[in-house]
Amino acid sequence: MASISEWYAEKNVLITGATGFMGKVLVEKLLRSCPKVNGIYILVRPKAGQSMQERVQDMMTCKLFDRVREDNPEFHQKVIPISSELTQPGLAISPEDVQKLTSCINIVFHCAATIRFDEPLKHALQLNVIATQQLLSLAQQMQHLHAFIHISTAYANCNRRHIDEVIYPPPVEPKKLIDSLEWMDDGIVCDITPRLIGDRPNTYTFTKALAECVIQQESHKLNIGIIRPSIVGASWQEPFPGWIDNFNGPSGIFIAAGKGILRTMRASNDAVADLIPVDVVINLTLAAGWYTSVHRPKTSLVYNCTTGGINPFHWGEIEHHVMSTFKRNPLEQAFRRPNANITSNYLMNQYWILVSHKFPAFIYDLFLRLSGQKPQMTRIFNRLHKAIGLLEYFSSQDWEWKSDNMHMLMSELSPEDRKTYNFDVRQLNWPEYIENYCIGTKKYVLNEDMSDIPAARQHLRKLRNIRYTFNTVLLVFIWRVFIARSQMARNIWYFVVSLCFKFLSYFRASSTLSQ
Ligand SMILES: CCCCCCCCCCCCCCCCCC(=O)SCCNC(=O)CCNC(=O)[C@H](O)C(C)(C)COP(=O)(O)OP(=O)(O)OC[C@H]1O[C@@H](n2cnc3c(N)ncnc32)[C@H](O)[C@@H]1OP(=O)(O)O
Ligand SMILES: NC(=O)C1=CN([C@@H]2O[C@H](COP(=O)(O)OP(=O)(O)OC[C@H]3O[C@@H](n4cnc5c(N)ncnc54)[C@H](OP(=O)(O)O)[C@@H]3O)[C@@H](O)[C@H]2O)C=CC1
């Protein structure tokens, strides 16, 4: 049987969400491991004043593509951008492009989605469900299509504790919801959203669950594979360790902790931190594309792509390794020395938010105001609190995912493919991975140079001295206010000092006697 790379040779691949975090890694891996792939068609929209072509050019000059560039400097010729806005009717693809895609595409990878947790329901539905429906209908017209691979999320069914590799019945019939939301104005939809999403924490997980149902209902004769990754983190090995380019999920939390901004967060020390490296997800996705095309399973296979059941690691351990990495490799211009703690206790967390977040932010903003600058720290903390408020749900509890299909797929690969498309997370060394992840956020998200680490350490020493000075001043202040002015406080103070003195004399006397 052909190896995975051989199978992709001469094939035309369509990818949505190719400009996103996972999409980019998918394009890179395809180009690097399947150099004979015929064409990679990517659906891209213009954004933030940049045309589609400019965006694709920018994407391909990114460091992620360095290895591919070395192997084949002309690699960009294989990437064919197609203008598309997924929220528009017909995905806003021109008739000529539709004609091109339907006649040549052999496999579709659907990665595009809105992954924001606070997305208004109508927009999340439009992108995560209706666009999926439209892409399926385009796929139905493709004359040489072998497989359609949909990227879902392991948290689509996070209202369940144990999650099998099946598509669960929808919380509400997607078609009915689409029809009813169509005539409602945004205000009404906003009001009824909590009732609609029920026991799911946000519109993201709700609409991803609906998308899976739409796929099941409307796939007809297509060969479908559904990949459900858990919390996708920086790359483990490929194209190099620690590649990450965004603040999503834990990355923003790690950065905020490394900058000394985040000091406390509600999370359970003992809960499994189900992180999965992005290269593992992409390797599994490509392997699933090959398997679905070659074996054409009778029913759509769902692949839970998680680590918790295979090689578990916990939030408490993550906290420890993140902190120790950032102490050894500090981020530049930290606000305070990194020292974040997680706690599952609500009151404790509120206390530390007040003492370690709100109070320092107030003092710093006061200082900025007094020195004629614009205050900014309170605003940053408000944003941070909003973000952690949305993430806490995922860091405070555990889920159990079945991963039989991931194991089955691994057993179907040749020894060579198992190396090239490695998704065996038993081999993952967590401390090493977390260290590379944190360094990756420094290098690739914050664009900080590793050669500046001595200066960053010097800055931390300066912060430590400021803290010592501040604490001493505070102590003297307390002394002046409470001790010097109140007879009772003075008496207590003298009592404590004389007690210490007595203990000291006693120990000195007993040590002289014993000599
Ligand atoms: C040591 C500690 C140990 C910790 C242990 C605990 C860790 C717990 C972590 C738990 C993670 C759980 C994740 C669960 C994931 C489910 C998996 C998935 O399927 S889905 C995948 C997961 N999906 C997600 O993770 C999505 C979650 N994110 C969201 O929903 C939204 O971003 C938001 C509501 C949090 C903030 O909305 P909003 O306030 O409107 O802000 P915008 O977004 O508009 O960004 C504005 C600008 O700020 C930038 N920036 C952003 N963050 C940070 C930061 N932390 N800092 C600095 N900067 C940051 C951002 O780049 C942007 O810059 P620019 O482009 O303007 O230049
Ligand atoms: N990151 C994670 O932790 C996890 C992600 N997933 C799933 O993986 C997939 C990819 O996620 P990730 O790469 O992190 O997400 P990103 O937000 O990084 O990428 C989203 C992609 O979708 C595209 N997109 C969004 N809206 C539109 C639109 N209206 N028209 C055209 N394209 C659009 C974006 O294009 P543009 O650049 O133009 O905005 C971008 O390419 C998603 O399906 C997500 O649900 C699952 C589990 C975890």
From TrEMBL:
Is Lipid metabolism included in the keywords of this UniProt record? yes
Picking any one GO biological process from the record gives: lipid biosynthetic process
Question: Where are the membrane-spanning stretches?
Answer: 468-486, 492-509
Please provide one cellular component term from the Gene Ontology annotations of this protein.
peroxisomal membrane
**What family classification does the UniProt entry report for this protein?**
Belongs to the fatty acyl-CoA reductase family.
Query: What task does this protein carry out?
Result: Catalyzes the reduction of fatty acyl-CoA to fatty alcohols. Catalyzes the reduction of saturated and unsaturated C16 or C18 fatty acyl-CoA to fatty alcohols. It plays an essential role in the production of ether lipids/plasmalogens which synthesis requires fatty alcohols. In parallel, it is also required for wax monoesters production since fatty alcohols also constitute a substrate for their synthesis.
Instruction: List the protein's name.
Output: Fatty acyl-CoA reductase
Source species, please?
Triplophysa rosa (Cave loach)
